[in-house]
Specification:
With 426 residues, this protein is α/β, with parallel strands linked by helices. Helix content is 42%, strand content 15%. The strands form 2 sheets. Strands 5, 6, 7, 8, 9, 10, 11 and 12 form an 8-stranded mixed beta sheet that branches. A 4-stranded antiparallel beta sheet has the order 2-3-1-4, with no helix packed on it. It starts with 7 loop residues before the first helix and ends with a strand.
Length: 426
């Protein structure tokens, strides 16, 4: 058991972030400004507390419901539910000493003008969790409970119940950090070789203090996210249009491979981030701040990493299942298809188009390509081969597209879920 003596400010920040996610559907990353002013230790604890609460929320909620007599009324209870979730996470997931977790929850309740009236309940419930919570938790279907119905139903339909379960199990683990080397002779920190120039950090620490970072020898990018770019093949000396380019990992991959890259990004702030990354890595690319649907230059290669629900990145963003829903899939798919149509018009005859999304949802991947090909006879699928993906045939769909799942590459710690299709223009 770990006794973390981190104080109230860290827990108070964690409560504010968690309440923003659950009550206002505010993305976790957007709430991290609550950590400003905290020590590195406190900020790290607050981040871990929120992330792990969201990652195991369904199971934690089930444990709490076994000890709470009746549902709490949100407009009367204030932040009581969030305080209980954080306390249960401290006790059952982070293994914080019971006296510290329960006392902290009581202090948080005292600071909320509604939750203060529920202090006796909070104290009693968390003491029961400390005593009997492990036994309750061990009897729960944690994968199912921590996957909202809208996702579980989709995954069991699109894949199968067994695959849905191993995907959900993969989401229980925090994602490791991968880096991509600029070249074969680049300096890099202690890490495990994965494939290509991708490596998995052994002990992340502060990224900007690791060997080779300041020199621009590598950048952070999940190994699965490197695969769509590789499907373009040899791009040395060729022009590649990278649509929806931020944060710039694929742009840097292409530039490092010798391509003449035109990176198109609609958000000026995110475009500036691409510039900063290119400057640090000493790579060159033309950056166009524009809507991908309005861009008009043509090229022999076009890469589209389309906006999507990003359900393939839940290991990194455990808030996603709780702030999104099935309607978001439809909205994202519609916006992405517009970009696919526009991007396709930029491909020169004989050229190659790669369309990718970091989503597990078929409407955003497989179904997009099926609809597009039926409407555009001038394009045809160029099937992905095992040689394209480092002999990992399980990453290739029956149709010949790339489909990675969070449970793939499990022997090395998993990977993000990605879909990518390679098309050629006649």
């Amino acid at each position: 058991m770990t006794d973390i003596s981190t104080g109230l400010p860290a827990r108070s920040a964690a409560l504010a972030i968690l309440s923003g996610v659950l009550q206002k559907r505010r993305p976790l990353d957007a709430g991290l400004d609550q950590l400003a002013g905290l020590s590195t230790r406190d900020a790290g604890f607050a981040r871990a507390l929120v992330s792990q609460t969201l990652r195991h929320m369904g199971a934690l909620d089930a444990v709490l419901r076994s000890f709470v007599g009746k549902p709490l009324v949100p407009h009367k209870a204030g932040a009581t539910s969030e305080i209980l979730l954080l306390g249960a996470c401290e006790l059952l997931i982070l293994k914080v000493a019971a006296h510290a977790a329960v006392d902290a929850a009581n202090q948080l309740a005292a600071m909320d003008f509604k939750a203060v009236h529920f202090k006796p309940l909070i104290n009693a419930v968390l003491r029961k969790v400390a005593k009997d919570g492990e036994a309750v938790l061990s009897g729960l279907d944690r994968e199912r409970l921590s996957t909202p119905d809208w996702l579980w139903t989709r995954w069991t339909s699109h894949y199968d119940s067994g695959t849905a379960r191993v995907i959900a199990r993969a989401h229980q683990r925090e994602a490791p950090i991968d880096i991509v080397l600029k070249s074969a002779d680049a300096a890099f920190p202690p890490s495990e070789a994965l494939f290509g120039y991708a490596r998995r950090l052994s002990d992340p620490g502060r990224i900007d203090e690791l060997p080779g970072f300041a020199q621009g020898d590598w950048w952070v990018q999940d190994c699965a996210a490197t695969l769509p770019t590789l499907l373009l093949g040899d791009v040395r000396g060729k022009t590649v249009i990278d649509l929806c380019a931020a944060p710039g990992g694929k742009t840097m991959q292409l530039a490092a491979a010798g391509a003449n890259v035109i990176a198109v990004e609609i958000d000026p702030v995110r475009a500036e981030r691409i510039r900063e990354n290119l400057s640090r890595t000493k790579l060159n690319a033309e950056i166009a701040v524009a809507d991908a649907r309005d861009f008009r230059t043509t090229a022999p290669f076009v890469l589209i990493d389309a906006p999507c629900t990003a359900t393939g990145t839940i290991r990194r963003h455990p808030d996603l299942p709780w702030i999104k829903g099935a309607a978001d899939v439809t909205i994202s798919a519609g916006a992405a298809y517009e970009i696919l149509e526009s991007g396709a018009s930029l491909v020169e005859p004989g050229g190659t188009l790669v369309f990718a999304v970091c989503s597990l949802e078929r409407e955003e991947g497989e179904e997009q390509i099926a609809v597009f090909l039926s409407a555009h006879p001038e394009f045809s699928r160029a099937p992905v081969t095992a040689q394209d993906v480092f002999s990992r045939g399980e990453w290739i769909t029956p149709e010949g597209d790339l489909r990675t799942l969070p449970c793939h590459f499990s022997e090395q710690g998993g990977m993000d879920g990605f879909f990518a299709a390679r098309l050629t223009r006649r």
